[in-house]
Amino acid sequence: xxxxxxxxxxxxEAINAWLQPDNEILMGAIQKTVDENLFDGSDIRHRIRHxxxxxxxxxxxxxxxxxxxxxxxxxxxxxxxxxxxxxxxxGFHNLLAVLLTGANYYGKLSRKDPYLMSSFLKVLExxxxxxxxxxATQLDHFQGINADAVLFSGSEASVTPxxxxxxxxxxxxxxxxxxxxxxxxSIAWITDNKKETMENLTEAVFRYGGNGCRSVAYVVAPFSLxxxxxxxxDYVESFWLNNPQHQKPSPSLYHRYAYNxxxxxxxxxxxxxxxxxxxxxxDEKFVLHWIEGGLNExxxxxxxxxxxxxxxxxxxxxxxxxxxxxEPLSQAQTPPVWWKADGIDTIKWMLDRL
Length: 354
Known about the structure:
Blueprint: H1 4-18, H2 24-35, H3 41-54, H4 57-67, E1 78-82, H5 92-101, E2 104-108, H6 114-126, E3 135-136, E4 149-153, H7 159-168, E5 178-181, E6 185-189, H8 195-206, E7 216-221, H9 225-242, H10 252-263, E8 267-269, E9 274-276, E10 287-292, H11 295-304, E11 308-313, E12 320-321, E13 324-325, E14 327-328, H12 346-353
Helix pairs in contact: 1-6, 2-6, 5-12, 8-9
């Protein structure tokens, strides 16, 4: 068995090969993704830049140390990953976690993001880090693998039918450990309206059209939306010039705007996005809820919602609020490689159960 340091070095070499500017497989995957209107090119470039900066040999070693991984000891275990497709390469983190443990990876790719993930998997296959044909967009491709664990990201509504399919295809059963992630959105708690703060807030809200679980759906600020909306709208329009919103909302969003106007709810209509001063639970895409307040309001939101992923701030970093530790607002869409989705370290979860 390779030492952990040697194993990490091999993974890093594969990542470096995949991210080379002359890698025609990756370039082709990016182009197909854009041509088929799956994601906007600016979001893909943002995601790949972040991976290049964050997934380094030192950072991988640090993640393993944090998780208590001392060797790639799960070499005889089969892990089935069912990846979401809400943002580009969203499944990369789970794939990387499986690779680091040494387990055998099987990946059901989203039809919304098939090309980018497979471009990386082809390189991993060349480095003998994954088995041939260990990925597909059809779940029945993995029939009969009898996985030792399942990692699944998706909506709560899909959990029951997914479990049924896994059982019918003999991929997993009711005793198979499963890590299911269904978090929906995050919170930004800002304490000033300085340029850096507002630019970071804009990125946190509008990157990926607000579709990531780390994307901000609530902002808590010491000032009202009415006092800030003209300036904030300028930041948003500047962001959209370089990062156009890929998806468009349904006509019902305008109906929501008309209703708010009729009942006197403070709001800002941005054609493809709505900002409203309400504390109701997020129930529609392309809506940002603005709340004037501070710590008490952040606590109320966390207690009111079971689907909060993260809390970010420009000044209260490291503070624990209810069951969340505040993260830097500047890292909302660029988390460290060892970040814990839903507060759970994927590597440690696998080690504890397998």
